[in-house]
Amino acid sequence: MASRPDRVPAPQRTARRSLGTARRRTQAERTEETRTRILKAASELIRRRGYARFRTADVAAEAGLSRGAQLHHFPTKDSLVVATLEYVFEQAQIQSRRRAAAVNRPRDLIEAVIEDAREFFFSEHFMVAIDIVLSTSTDQAVRKQILDISRKARRPVETAWTEALAASGVPASLAADIVALTLSVVRGMALRTLWDNDPKWFDELFAVWRRMIKIFLEHQHPKARTR
After folding, report:
1. Contact call for residues 128 and 85 (beta carbons, < 8 A)
2. pLDDT reading at 227 higher than 90
3. Mean pLDDT across the stretch 61-88?
4. Domain boundaries, the chain
5. For a 10 Å CB count at each end of the chain, is N or C smaller?
6. At the topology level of CATH, where does 28-75 sit?
C-alpha cells in the first residue's frame, strides 16, 4: 500500500488544534495585566529608593513598557502613587486575612496578631504612606484618598483577627478591643523607628504585651484559649 506523506501523526494534529483554539485574552484582561505590571514596578521602585527618590519616569522601564502605556493608565504622579499604595495595601490585606483564617490552635493568637501587624506596619510601604500623608506638598485630596485606602484595607484585617480570637473563646467585644489595642501598639512602635530603631527592644516590649494580655484574660475569662 502506498504511503500517505500528507498524513500528520495524531499527537501533532492535537497540538495544532490546541494552538489554534487557545483562548485569546480579552481587552479587559490585557488592561488589568498592564496596570498590575505598572503597579508592581512602582511598588518595587518605592521599596528600593524611598518616596523622596521615586521618579515616575523610571516606572515604565522597570515594568518593561512604553512611557505612553504608563501615562495612559496613570497620567499623573499622584494617580500612580495612590494606585500603588492601594495595590500594596490590598496585597497586605489578602495575606493578613489568610493568616488569620489559617491560624492553628493551640497557637499563640496574640503573637500571631503581632507578627502580622509587624509585617505590615514595619514595612517600607507603610512608611512611604506616612511620608506622603505628612508631606506638606501633597494635595489634600490625595491625602484623603490615601487615608481612605488605609482604612478600607485594614478594617477587614481587624475583623478577621477579631473573629479568630472570638473563635478561641474570647468574648467578641473584648476580642475587638484586644486587636485594636495590639495594632495600635505595633503601629506606634513602627513610627518610633523614625527616630529610635531598636528591634531587640521592640521584641522585648511585644513579649511584655503578650504576657499582659494573657494574664488579663486568665483572670477575666479563664475559658479563653489564646494559646
Report:
1. yes
2. no
3. 91
4. 28-75, 91-227
5. N
6. Arc Repressor Mutant, subunit A (1.10.10)
The one-letter amino acid at 225: R
- Residue 62, pLDDT > 90, answer yes
pLDDT at 201 over 50: yes
> What does the block give as the cell for 62?
522597570
Contacts of 119 (CB under 8 A, 6+ apart): 92, 95
CA–CA distance from 132 to each of 49, 88, 181 (Å)? 14, 14, 25
d(CA 96, CA 4) in angstroms, rounded, equals 62
pLDDT of residue 66: 92
Question: Distances in Å between the alpha carbon of 176 and those of 12, 124, 162, 180?
Answer: 61, 27, 5, 6
Provide DSSP, 138-194.
S-HHHHHHHHHHHHHHHHHHHHHHHHHHHHTT--HHHHHHHHHHHHHHHHHHHHHTT
On average, the pLDDT of the chain sits at: 82
Give me the pLDDT at residue 106, please: 40
Max Cα separation, the chain? 93
Selection from 127, 120, 129 nearest residue 97 by Cα:
120
Distance CA 105, CA 167 (A): 10
C-alpha cell read off for 123: 514595612
pLDDT of residue 16: 53
Identify the band that residue 34 occupies on the pLDDT scale cut at 50, 70 and 90: very high
Contact indicator for 113, 182 with CB cutoff of 8 Å: yes
